[in-house]
């Protein structure tokens, strides 16, 4: 989705957030902060768990931010800090630039009612309410009239594919269905910020896929800011604008899905992403080669060009203007013919090209349909690189091996 | 040695203190006690009058319908009808109505005081730690003991009976309300908070509904405790089945004693079956 220009506002922001469960001996936190090398000690303090340490990040408006990590790495705790369900032991959380630690309880309630909704890992439905009333909870707490909140709740239920269940009670639904009720409850209030704690974990692959698609569409349409926890790397890659990897309460790497998969910064992340197919994140940008040997200015002497092609064993070159904009492709035969005809090689035929963010599948498709290497162009038609078949096959081999 | 024993056995004036306290209360607040007493008396009389104004058969029909409505069980409805018919047959109808009025009054009073107390205890540690020993005291001191101050405050009759019954019957509903609310799963509370519920909304929409099975169990326990106080309340002049037992005791009439006792048992069983937390749809009764 949108890679977020710097102009978009920061919606959520964590500044050096720590959460330690259990009773800290006096001054332990200060000591800890002043002497980072002693941090492991606090883990051994009896009755203390450092669930989140030094979380420092911000989520831009409209961004889909995914938090990943093993069980117990503090993902849920971090998410609860974002809407103030848990008060950080240290540090501050900002929503729309306002610190949750600084506002009154009443303001916090309004913020939660109006701006953010949460989907819980274990659903947290109210068993004494019908499905419809469960979904309408947020609206009810806002004081929306019964008629309107029922209409909205029905809409949300339809969105998650549970129409017809509104009169049942949660206990009558399967786990996956309950999870979708939790999802509908959050969607019903139409919040700017959605906090989702493993919202699809209990769904079967088919419905999960369906919900992901539905969800991506929704997110793109209404520009919600979403923080999403998942165990499933494929899901993260599919959905995320950015991923934060957590280990033992610390964010060990943060970046786009490609960065996480292709440039893991440490063993933990590497192990985590080992199983994922690189093809899922790789784009044309990653497999393209330097275009310089492959391009030739329109003004260049055709004899020299042909010479170069022979020397470097190129079947063709791409002709560009002085601004490196692609004009056409020139094969060896054409060059030879043109030399015999005495005219300079000029760009002619339309060349199939792709953008730098095209996924690998598209690149392969393009490469298969053309005998030439595939040029990669930026938005203004300038050549950024060239994808050769050799490079594609190498990539494939690496993927098979890795 | 003797000196130490002497010091140790010099009695702490505990009883004297309590007596002084009760004395002072009675004299200083006699007007207030009179007022409460009159209110209660009026309430109980009105209730008794209402209940006895109904023809027994109409009454039985209504109770059976109520049992059916609450429990949706033919068995309970039938047992209800048969039980009341038995009481009618044994000639205990009037006593039963008086007892029932007493129980209803005591239960309503216990609940209106007890449920808020339970909620308070669940939310405030201080309240919890202050109330807990008091509740232990109320439940374990032999009931006869607080008949004495009840008599001093309110004189003879129904009112001290209700007072003593409330003291005895309120603890379970306080405890179970408190327990029920404390045991509401954290995630449900978080759900409420995450969607911006205020204190009252949390209480009314999340905590109390979640704690309902436990609260209903408390109501049931309170009714049962109230019923078990009935005989004792008869000692200080409360009319009803208890008084019949007392009379039987006074004249050593085994048959009459058995019948009155059976009357209490039947009433207890009926009330228990009708007012009892059912398995809720979430299965977390
Ligand atoms: N209320 C709490 N009291 C004490 N410790 C807690 C509490 N909540 C979480 N923890 C501890 O904090 C750590 C992080 O828990 P958290 O629930 O955030 O993990 P998680 O990453 O969400 O795991 P999972 O993927 O299993 O949901 C765990 O070690 C847990 O034991
Ligand atoms: Mg979790």
Automatic annotation (TrEMBL), chain A:
Pfam families: ABC_tran (PF00005), CBS (PF00571). CDD domains: ABC_Pro_Gly_Betaine. InterPro entries: AAA+_ATPase, ABC_osmolyte_uptake_ATP-bind, ABC_transporter-like_ATP-bd, ABC_transporter-like_CS, CBS_dom, CBS_dom_sf, Gly-betaine_transp_ATP-bd, P-loop_NTPase. GO terms for molecular function: ATP binding; ATP hydrolysis activity. It comes from the Bacteria. Residues 343-402 form the CBS domain. SMART domains: AAA. GO terms for biological process: amino acid transport; glycine betaine transport; response to osmotic stress. Belongs to the ABC transporter superfamily. This is Glycine betaine/proline transport system ATP-binding protein.
UniProtKB/TrEMBL annotation, chain B:
One of its GO terms (molecular function) is amine transmembrane transporter activity. This is Glycine betaine/proline transport system permease protein. InterPro entries: MetI-like (IPR000515), MetI-like_sf (IPR035906). Belongs to the binding-protein-dependent transport system permease family. Keywords: Cell membrane, Membrane, Transmembrane, Transmembrane helix, Transport. The chain crosses the membrane at residues 46-69, 76-93, 99-122, 134-156, 215-236, 248-271. It comes from the Bacteria. GO terms for cellular component: ATP-binding cassette (ABC) transporter complex. PROSITE patterns: ABC_TM1. It is a multi-pass membrane protein. Residues 96-275 form the ABC transmembrane type-1 domain. The keyword Transmembrane helix applies. It comes from Desulfacinum hydrothermale DSM 13146. It holds the Pfam family BPD_transp_1. It is found in: Cell membrane. SUPFAM superfamilies: MetI-like.
